[in-house]
Amino acid sequence: MGLERPLPETDGLAAEYWSAAREGRLVIQRCKACGAAQHYARPFCTSCGGAQPDWIDACGRATLLSFTEVHRSPYEDLPAPYVVALVRLEEGVTLLTHIVDTPAASLRCDMPVQLEFRPLREGFQLPVFRLAGAAG
User: Fold this and answer.
1) Percent of the chain, pLDDT > 90?
2) pTM of the complete model beyond 0.70
């Protein structure tokens, strides 16, 4: 029997992110002082050093920056091939994610993509992206 993907760590600053994901929301941080957005979570703003950035809901629209197709999955619950990608949210932050329901040969950088969630297990949901306008 193969390995299952490890579940996300939900302690510390990651707790808010994964709690929102369970609800089908993608959250990022925004600095109270300068307004800069950031991802992954930190206890300070990486732009101005401000303390305790707020959490905001991301709109879910993004642009495909880069991607690769994985042909050998280490996990039984993640069948290959699958697409791993960097996307830039409209809010300005970059996420490492998956592009779903589109073969890599059909993808091009700068394509618009849209957020959706896929269930993992134990109530976790994973934020992934699909081509904007594609039926889910």
Assistant:
1) 89
2) yes
